[in-house]
Amino acid sequence: MTHRGKHGTHLVWDWNGTLLDDIVAVVGATNAAFAEAGLPPMTLERYREMYCVPIPRFYERLLGRLPTDAEWQRMDGIFHRHYAEQRVSCALTPGVEELLARWKRAGRSQSLLSMYGHEHLVPVVRDYGIEPHFVRVDGRTGPSGGSKALHMERHFEVLDGIDPERSVVIGDAVDDAVAAAHVGARAVLYTGGSHSRSSLEEAGVPVVDTLSEAVALAGSMVDD
């Protein structure tokens, strides 16, 4: 059996919009935050066309200006409060349990890195019953709204003997590809989350419509 990804491909999974099918909750919570600023609700399609990181820039696209620090703090607080209420009704993306179990049975390693706050992420992942599939689960520490790149760097610093160059990041956002490139890893982007397909394709990495396609492609991207 391959030991902890030292010889085989290692997967780094994103959480929100990838393993967790929560895009409806995310859009609902975003609309609640935007209502605070007097903005009308947006559709899922418009959200996917406009979404970008860092999040204040996303808000700027819709407000026509960057939110002030006070506005950002208030809107971010509203978002997280509404998201926490709506997340409980969200399920894992169909097929996730089997994909994770199959990868682990093959002797390959996988980890989870999310921009969801670490103190919230770990118990949530545990509640969904998939924590044992991962060699490590890391959420965001520090302020929300930024890029995943530095978090990805720290994630690999604490992964035991796992080489970024033999790793593939699977996520639903252009920022996942940016974070992967930052550490020298590959990336596959999934259309079921925060971005439209056309937006994802601008990242210059493979784009797929299912997580099973993502895993199959990831397995072929790094030579064992």
Structural features, described:
This protein has a six-stranded parallel sheet with strand order 5-4-1-6-7-8, sandwiched between helices. Strands 2-3 form a two-stranded antiparallel sheet. α7 (149-157) crosses α8 (174-183). β4 (110-117), α6 (118-127) and β5 form a beta-alpha-beta unit. Helices cover 46% and strands 14% of the residues. The model is unreliable at 1-6 (pLDDT under 50). The protein has helices spanning 23-36, 44-50, 55-63, 69-87, 96-105, 118-127, 149-157, 174-183, 197-201, 211-221; strands at 10-13, 20-21, 91-92, 110-117, 137-140, 167-171, 186-190, 207-208. The chain has ten helices and eight strands. It has 224 residues and is of the alpha/beta class. The protein is globular. This is Haloacid dehalogenase-like hydrolase.
Give the structure's gist in a few sentences:
With 224 residues, this protein is an alpha/beta fold.
Radius of gyration: 17 Å
Number of helices: 10
Number of strands: 8
SSE succession? EEHHHHEHEHEHEHEHEH
Task: Please state roughly what percent of the residues sit in beta strands, choosing from under 5%, 5-15%, 15-25%, 25-35%, 35-45% or over 45%.
Answer: 5-15%
Gap from first CA to last CA: 13 Å
What is the typical, i.e. mean, pLDDT? 92
Biggest pleated sheet: 6 strands, parallel
SSE class? alpha/beta
What is the molecular shape? Answer: globular
Strand order of the largest sheet: 5-4-1-6-7-8
The proportion of residues forming helix, as a percent range, comes to 40-55%
Low-pLDDT runs of 5+ residues are: 1-6
Organism: Streptomyces salyersiae
InterPro entries: HAD-like_hydrolase_sf, HAD-like_sf, HAD_sf, PGP-like_dom2
Protein name: Haloacid dehalogenase-like hydrolase
Pfam family, one: Hydrolase
